[in-house]
Design goal:
By secondary structure, the protein is α+β, with helices and mostly antiparallel strands. It is 31% helix and 22% strand. α4 (141-149) crosses α7 (193-212) and α6 (170-179) crosses α7 (193-212). The protein starts with a helix and ends in a 6-residue tail after the last strand. The chain binds a DNA duplex (16 and 16 nucleotides) through loops.
DNA sequence: AGGACGCCCTGTTCGC
DNA sequence: TGCGAACAGGGCGTCC
């Protein structure tokens, strides 16, 4: 479930491995993940171009090419990237492959096809059309406050709404609310401004720490809910059972003793 | 405005 | 043992 930290790790990976490579051929079989373009058009857009830079906003990753535009990737639930060496075997559900001139390749694999691939002239214009909020890692405390303050719904729903704040999904909202010792159904209207400030600070720490640990739950601090869940353990604070509650059609994980 | 729900999609897990 | 149902959830659309 790639969320902001996972996508940031993908971005760094592309930056280290694939930037500077020149696209010789594009393979993009016709599946639902190709949006606003066709396999042929994508090939014409990208063919011959050098990958020059990367950028991330929320859960979207842009890979810029030849000053002409950018590949905009969304990873849905199961998407990931892999830079292949010459003759290295590719993963099982490749939906897009960029073959480079030196024989290496960059592949986008997405088994459940809930991700998307686009070619865009302008990344900012794309983000604006989507109506995305500011990136969760870049939003200042002031910005966070003014976004949350005017909302009335539950805190988890707001954190996860990409049009409010871009980048947080079900997994990391669970961690943020656990660290804030806040029940996910808590109404924003009943939160004092100090609580919102604290929430912003926790959000920032959780996202940055997850990035620093390579978005790998087994590397997260032992005090984290996500680490405990990856090891099938109880609450890191009280040892109690972690429960699931359906909120907005998603399963929230929480400790009913520590979050209220 | 916000929440509840359904749809897409398929690998994995669960129950009979 | 084997098969089918249920489940997972990001984004989007619909309805109330």
């Amino acid at each position: 479930m790639p969320e902001l930290p996972d996508v940031e790790v993908f971005r760094q990976y592309v930056e280290e491995n694939s930037i500077g490579c020149k696209v010789a051929a594009v393979h993009a079989p016709l599946t639902g993940i190709l949006k606003d373009t066709s396999p042929q058009a994508l090939g014409r857009s990208l063919g011959g171009l050098e990958l020059t830079a990367t950028r991330r906003h929320g859960k979207y990753l842009a890979i810029f090419a030849g000053g002409k535009g950018c590949l905009v990737l969304h990873f849905g639930m199961t998407g990931f990237l892999q830079h292949l060496q010459k003759k290295q075997q590719e993963p099982q559900h490749v939906r897009l492959r960029l073959d480079f001139q030196d024989g290496q390749a960059l592949v986008y694999d997405c088994s459940r096809k809930l991700g998307s691939v686009r070619w865009q002239r302008s990344f900012p214009a794309f983000l604006q059309r989507k109506g995305l909020g500011p990136d969760a890692l870049e939003a200042s405390q002031h910005e966070f406050f003014s976004l949350m303050h005017k909302r009335k719904g539950s805190v988890k729903t707001a954190l996860m709404r990409q049009q409010v704040l871009a980048g947080i999904g079900n997994v990391y909202s669970d961690e943020i609310l656990f660290k804030a010792r806040m029940h996910p159904r808590t109404r924003l209207a009943q939160l004092a401004s100090e609580s919102l400030q604290k929430l912003h600070s926790i959000m920032h720490t959780v996202l940055q720490t997850a990035i620093d640990k390579g978005a790998a739950p087994e590397q997260f601090p032992r005090s984290w809910l996500l680490r405990a869940m990856s090891e099938d353990k109880g609450c890191p604070i009280c040892g109690g059972e972690i429960v699931r509650e359906n909120i907005g059609g998603r399963n929230a994980h929480l400790c009913p003793m520590c979050q209220n």
